[in-house]
Amino acid sequence: MAGLKTIIALSFVLAIGFLLVILSSALWKKYYTLLVVATYVVAPIPNWLCGRAANNDDFMESSGNGIVDFGRFLTGFLVVMGVALPAVLAHCHIIANLAMVMSIIGGFLIYGTIISFTMFFQEDEEF
């Protein structure tokens, strides 16, 4: 069971992630790197929705998990896009290289916090 210290630590890491992404765009006055926040915030949603939509049948082990795999694919695509977008912008000289590094590190902190939050506060189903 996660406690108050876990919530405070996750909030602190999330704030640092947002600070890095905001600074990466505000210091150089190029606000394209804020798109990284959108991709990392939206990234867990397909996995969550497709996990809920999957048919969890206790009696049949061979039930299809195509929808779960599709959700994982979309989540992976969004996470990779969160890393690749600043790299492409830096390669095209739209943003600075240091802005790219700050944006990628901030994005990983944001996504890692979201994943940690779901792991720590997930309720176990017991029947």
TrEMBL record:
Cited Pfam families: Vps55
Membrane topology category: Multi-pass membrane protein
Statement: the UniProt record of this protein carries the keyword Coiled coil: no
Localisation: Membrane
GO cellular component, one term: Vps55/Vps68 complex
Main location (coarse class): membrane
Transmembrane annotation, as ranges: 7-25, 31-49, 70-89, 95-121
GO biological process: late endosome to vacuole transport via multivesicular body sorting pathway
Protein name in UniProt: Vacuolar protein sorting 55 superfamily
